[in-house]
Design a protein that fits this description.
Layout: H1 4-11, E1 33-34, E2 39-40, H2 41-50
Antiparallel strand pairs: 1-2
């Protein structure tokens, strides 16, 4: 779980646009962020496994 201070800091507008970065909207994780869904890979995997993301299912071949 990310520190609350860092999550709040991310929501502020940065002094320069290149300093901004993305975090998972659920857990606040800054790495392994999937832009299309707005969440990190760990939350994506958990939600996809539970069927909470429409159109996503586990690959099988």
């Amino acid at each position: 779980m990310a520190r609350t201070a860092l999550i709040v800091k991310t929501k502020r507008t940065p002094k320069f646009s290149s300093r901004g970065y993305t975090r998972c909207s659920l857990c606040g994780r800054p790495h392994a962020y999937i832009r299309d869904y707005g969440i990190c890979r760990l939350c994506f995997r958990k939600m996809a496994h539970l069927g909470e993301i429409p159109g996503v299912r586990k690959a099988s071949w």
